[in-house]
Amino acid sequence: MSENYAATVDARVLPVPQKHPTIFRAFDGLSVGETMLLVNDHDPKPLYYTFAAERTGEFEWRYLEAGPEVWQVSIRRIAASTGQQAPSEGHSCGGGHHAHHEHHEHHGHQHAAHAGSPTQILKDEHTLILQALDGLERKLIALEAGAAPDRTYFEKAVKFIRTFADDCHHGKEEDLLFKTMVDRGFPLQGGPIAVMLSEHETGRAYVHQMAEAAAGIGQDPAAAGKIVRNGRAYIQLLRPHIDKENMILYPMADNMLSSEDQAYLGEAFEHFETEKIGADVHEAMMTLQEELKAGA
């Protein structure tokens, strides 16, 4: 069945930094009810997460062809823009933030020259992680105020943090970005990378304690207090951790890595997403995040 498209973007012929900005400009030019066609040489699933986070409720995404060499996606505008989003600069696992929105939007504009770069992808992922922290914080406040412990919510929150924030996001940092920086002469010990790695490990310990406490809800009377202590510690660790990466480490990476390094990391991120994490896992994490939003 043929369809009339208001715009067509063949991402295969675009330089990496121009892909996402071009696609979003095309989408933002659509009227409600109009459809654009996206053509790509790999599954654009990471782009879907950008749309889900930054154009929430505005689009309908439908695969027309799914590889192995060509992917075609129909993207239809189903609602007008809220006018609150800045144009997307590239994405992988996610984006969008609430309490820290203005702060991180400022830094997104500051580094707009690196649109679609590996560090921009990681910054976009930070926004989804920050959204999850906002919801977790609201739940902790309710728990402190005497609400009954919501075991299902906290187990889902732990799953999201472990899979999305740690396996996906920290995995790309540790296995790819940090290693590439070290290969180019950036110090592994005694510098920002060492601090980030240490904080990753500290965060994992807090999440482990939260997971144990969530499993004990209904049996361990101290479970709620344990969730509050470790949940707050994790939030207090991760928010400044994200700021340090966005404002210090990522700009350092952008300044030191060559265009070839950037292109390598872009491809490596895509491979990591599809081969090590898996598209089905990412889709499940986006669904889980919506459930966490509703539950918070």
UniProtKB/TrEMBL annotation:
Ranges of residues in domain Hemerythrin-like: 118-253
Top-level taxon: Bacteria
Compositionally biased region (Basic residues): 97-112
InterPro entries named among the record's database cross-references: DUF2249, Hemerythrin-like
Region (Disordered): 81-117
Any single Gene Ontology cellular-component annotation: plasma membrane
Domain DUF2249: 8-77
Name of protein: DUF2249 domain-containing protein
Species assigned in the record: Candidatus Methylomirabilis tolerans
